[in-house]
Design a protein that fits this description.
- The protein contains 14 helices and 24 strands.
- The chain has 433 residues and is of the alpha/beta class.
- The chain has 2 domains: 167 residues, 3-Layer(aba) Sandwich (Glutaconate Coenzyme A-transferase); 242 residues, Acetyl-CoA hydrolase/transferase C-terminal domain (Glutaconate Coenzyme A-transferase), CATH 3.40.1080.
- The strands form 6 sheets. Strands 15-13-11-10-16-21-23-24 form an 8-stranded mixed beta sheet, sandwiched between helices. Strands 4-3-2-1-5-7-9 form a 7-stranded parallel beta sheet.
- β1, α2 and β2 form a beta-alpha-beta unit.
- α4 runs parallel beside α5, α6 packs across α7 and α13 packs antiparallel against α14.
- It is globular.
- It starts with 8 loop residues before the first helix and ends in a 9-residue tail after the last helix.
Amino acid sequence: MKQIHFVSADEAVKVVKSHDHIHLSSVASVPHVLIEALVRRADAGEIEDVRFHHFHTEGPAPYSDPKYSGIFFDQGFFLGPNVRKNVNAGYADYLPVHLGESQKLYRSGALKCNVAMVQVSLPDENGMVSLGTSVDCSIAAIEAADHVIAVVNKNVPYAFGDLVSLDQIDTFVEADTPLVTASFAEPTPTEALIGKNCASLVPDGACIQMGIGALPNALAAELVNHKNIGVHTEMFADGVLRLIKRGVVNGAAKTIDKGKVVASFLLGSEDVYNFIDHNPDVLMKDIKYTNDPWIIGSIKNMIAINSATEVDLTGQISADSIGTRIFSGTGGQLDFVKGATMAEGGKSITAFASRTNKGISKIVPMLNPGAGVVTPRADAHYIVTEYGIVDLYGKSLQERAKLLISIAHPDDREMLDRAAFERFGPHYHNFSI
């Protein structure tokens, strides 16, 4: 087994040169100790035009700070709150990509990776380490990078799935920084209704994909009486863990990876992180595997549940932006929409509150100018709000408009109906659904 020789973070980041592209392991497992060392080099005037690539990150993000304009430039694959303001001000940027293809950017050479900076677990007896809570596209970055720096952190859980050999790592740094945790509020009455509607579409024995936040937690709360649920997802959090502990999630009916919970990255409480540590029932996999539509499509009764910022009357789904303002990213939504649609007995569900917190309808006549279409209308199937469920599959534009209006907020329906009449003409009201 390769012997580990630790160096300081400041020594490790000396390998970074001006104009380099850096990959960061993401979400809860950002290697902040290395970022802090790079900031010290930046403050000393030693580097410039260093670019960063990553999934959504938690914690401080100096690589997007206007203070380091011209020195650091962030080009993330998915935005978190820590970089959103600076991206929309032009100090950082968003790189659109389906999360399932983010690994391909590195493996194909479409995106350079000069230095991969990751956090890993303590090694096992075979000289293998785990990327713990954030496998994502870091395996691909490690393969493609000219130089790999790994922070060996005892707080990174050793998760089974796709592992990394010590031989793939060039430089080792030791740190015991706690992983970032996140907690989510209990569902509101509106979210509880949406969760109940979604749960009615999930049969016993189904395999589910859902993200994090209040809505997935609301759904999880409504699945407590279901049986033999499986999980194949890009991520999960405490809502799924509660279902596992209740025996609702056991993966017994899964077509592949039977009995296993499969994910690529996590964000939740320490309970979630502790749960995956040395747990053979959890596989943390390369995003290439978790988000491959053909693999997803091979899972019987695959249920994909995603959200939206807006849906227009024809079924175009925006999820990454609010007008021209980038909010998050394409993510894995279409990966799972396509996969679930291909699966035998599968369903693709888009669930959201009918209105924003400011009382603005999320079902709109037309998407706000500049909004990105994450799921095309031809791929839109089940749409769920607190007011009900509609299925757009096999429905024409006018039929879709009528269906979507039926689950909009009651106070918005007259406005939407008027907009549909203006769009489709006087024959719009001449048929029923």
